[in-house]
Amino acid sequence: MNVIDVRGLVKRFGDKTVVDHVTMTVAEGEIVGFLGPNGSGKTTTIRIMCGLLTPDEGEGTVLGFDILTDALSIKREVGYMTQKFSFYEDLTIGENLEFVARLYRLKPVEQHVARTLEELGLASRRNQLAGTLSGGWKQRLALAACIMHKPKLLLLDEPTAGVDPKARREFWDEIHRLAGGGLTVLVSTHYMDEAERCHRISYISYGKMLATGTVDEVVKNAGLTTFVLQGPKLDQVAEALQGRPGVDQVAPFGATLHVVGSDKAALEKALADVEKEHKDVTVTPGETSLEDVFIQFMSGSKDNMV
Amino acid sequence: MNAVFSFARLGALLIKEFIQMRRDRITFAMMLGVPLMQLVLFGFAINNDPKSLPAALVATSSDPYTRAMVSALQTTGYYRFDHVAQSAAEAEFLMARGDVSFVVTIPADFARRVERGDNPQILIEADATDPSVASGAISTLGTVASQALLRAQGTQDAAREAARGQLDVVVHRRYNPEGVSQYNIVPGLLGVILQMTMVMMTAMALTRETERGTMENLLAMPSSPLEIMLGKVLPYLVVGAVQVVVVLVAAKLLFGIPFVGSLTLLLSSVLVFVLSLVLLGYTISTMARSQMQAMQLTFFFFLPSLLLSGFMFPYRGMPGWAQTFGEIFPLTHFLRITRAVMLKGAELPAVATEIGWLVVFVALFAGVALVRFRRTLD
């Protein structure tokens, strides 16, 4: 049985369609990355899944509960971590966790709180006000609070925004540890390295689900060709390539230039032309990265909107 | 597992709310300090029957009758002759400037006319821009002036003789024979102070969660609207109880307000009143999108309720439609209850209708609040 199984979700705010027929399935124990640019409808989709928003169209189940009629049951078994820190800044870490433990009716409160504090390394800061914590610690508190009641599904909305690399690494280790224990995780993110740590990714843009699958599948299905250029005066080469038919992306990477295109033949022709003008430049086939694919998606869907 | 209500979840919300209240020292101090300050300030300041008002005397003669008249006016307590004007024009100027509230003119031929029995006259001009300033001072004039004159003439007994058999009007000023404003103001202040803090605080309560983003989390966790409402409202009931004690003790100690009725009856009505207020505040809270809006909505409600409830101006003196309008404020009904219970010693049957009204408000506001409460972020 799929933990998340939603079909044709639509959500409109005024005349703006924020979520446009989104269908998604997540199997038990999977870590699914939810990717897309700002304002693409990730947060709205997650909110629909945990019963915070009612969809205008569509249906589905989360953990077997109907998202339209059984929001309360979903709330009991889901851990939802909001994008913005939304615990009480005028309460200490301990008090926040005690509050959550009581709301979920975990007994005995003290035992649950102590165990959670211990597990996430928060015990020494138990009496610190949440408002005085740094970004990384706030995030750790939020994660602690939403896994304390042992949910079966974690919905994480950009959990690592504004968190330093070490804390991010630890966070992801924690997520994998939890998933190893059978927890299912849907996590939205902007970071490519995080996407690559997911079992599967789903890419959403302007409310539409554009791609879904493993990282390799998504990259392969995108059908992009990438070449790496090396040589002197690459800035001039980049300028020359810009806007030629077949050239979709030109991006400098250190001392090299990545050129990406969806039409392989046209791209090769463009490169051949440029090679004639700049004799010293060498062109070698490169590997398309997830980032290239996403940038391709973003520019592509923008065109759709116009 | 009960989906709609659980004491454990309510307990969680209550504990959280009390911790937050304790941390927010300034607000906490305000909730207890402000009532006391307001009580002292308004209790001592507001006076519906102003006395010892500045007056100017225009008198060209200093015969015994004139002097008797002046001292009679002074003993009423309303007039304080601190200006003696030489001419009518000078007196006119004093009044126009607002230096005096009254100009008393005793003509030069006053004594002569009294002695001739020739209908003597004195002129009292009052600054009636504020009618309540002038009314008390003027109402006592008729009797005071004629008695003073009789006394000066030494014909008091003869007059009393002549008055025998005439109509005698007996006036009893009941419940407040000395006409002390504070007896009326201070019980009223109890209602006004409770209204101020209770409505305002609860109006902010829910919008604060929305504004700080904690609402999203609260809604994502298993708490029902009823639990959230009670969790927000009950702590303020406790604050209200403390305020009531502060005001009642101060009323007794500072102002010596008589308390002739039943304390139990008063406290039970206070409970219903405060409940209606916190629920009203909570209803506002479900409508406002920010604390600023909540504040504005609260003020829209405050002013009419203060002016039309009978706290500042006599309720019965308002036109019929305004009286009907005034009925929609819980304060109107509560004022009638506290004044009746504290000053008149009214028992339950006398105030049952008013308490009934308050109960209606409680049910109404609770209903609206629960319907208005957004369980989702839609």
Features:
heterodimer, A: 306 residues, alpha/beta, Rossmann fold, Alpha-Beta Plaits, 2 domains, six-stranded mixed beta sheet, four-stranded antiparallel beta sheet, elongated, B: 378 residues, mainly alpha, abc type-2 transporter like fold, four-stranded mixed beta sheet, 16 helices
Polypeptide structure, described:
The complex is a heterodimer of chains A (306) and B (378). Chain A is α/β, with parallel strands linked by helices and 306 residues long. In chain A, helix 3 (93-103) crosses helix 4 and helix 3 (93-103) packs parallel to helix 5 (135-147). The radius of gyration of chain A is 23 Å and the shape is elongated. In chain A, the strands form three sheets. A six-stranded mixed beta sheet of chain A has the order 6-7-8-3-9-10, with helices on both faces. Chain A has a four-stranded antiparallel beta sheet with strand order 2-1-4-5, with helices on one face. The two termini of chain A are 40 Å apart. Chain A folds into two domains: 2-219, P-loop containing nucleotide triphosphate hydrolases (Rossmann fold, 3-Layer(aba) Sandwich), CATH 3.40.50; 225-287, Alpha-Beta Plaits (2-Layer Sandwich). Helices cover 38% and strands 28% of the residues of chain A. The mean pLDDT of chain A is 89. Chain B has 378 residues and is mainly α. Chain B has two domains: 7-46 and 179-372, no CATH class; 53-163, 3-Layer(aba) Sandwich (abc type-2 transporter like fold), CATH 3.40.1710. In chain B, 68% of the residues lie in helices and 6% in strands. In chain B, helix 3 (64-75) links the parallel strand 1 and strand 2 (79-84). The longest helix of chain B is centred in the middle third of the chain and has 32 residues, at 181-212. The chains are: A alpha/beta (306), B mainly alpha (378).
